[in-house]
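Comment thread on ticket #2218

A.B. wrote:
> Attaching the input chain for the structure job we discussed in standup.
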Amino acid sequence: MKTILETKRLLLREFTVNDAEFILELVNTPLWLEFIGDKNIRNKENAIDYIENRLQKSYINNGYGLWLMQLKVDATPIGMCGLLNRESLEDIDIGFALLPEHERKGYTYEAAKATLTYAEKVLQIPKVVAITNTNNIASIRLLNKLGLQFDQELLLSEDDPVLLFS
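C.D. wrote:
> Ran it. Output below, let me know if you need it in another format.
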């Protein structure tokens, strides 16, 4: 279990297969399904496969990825935040998701701000962008608060318009 970042209230660390139950819960929350999409993760085996073949593969191939956000006080997993290298985008982008019961407490801002600093100072990534669903008002507000500005609307696929912030 490799810790990547520490903030005032959070630890961001790499996912392990022991986080399968948490992944299963997170990717099936209403906001994840609405704004990120259905990953077809329906059981613990699917979650383990997602961790091994998507999350951990990114750590190996890119040196970064999506990290588990957990509370420092008691190690409770509350969400994910990190960097993605998508074939559909020219630049690295930041992504985040939170369990509903931990929303609106500033955790995502705290994790995302630290992630952007880490990308710039440690990983030497010159530009980080973000994409979000056109209807995801909370995400748009957070991206603006982080200093990212709306750039353009993109089509990731035929029926998937997103807003690009840089």
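A.B. wrote:
> Thanks. Noting for the ticket: Residues 85 and 92 are 5 Å apart (CA to CA).
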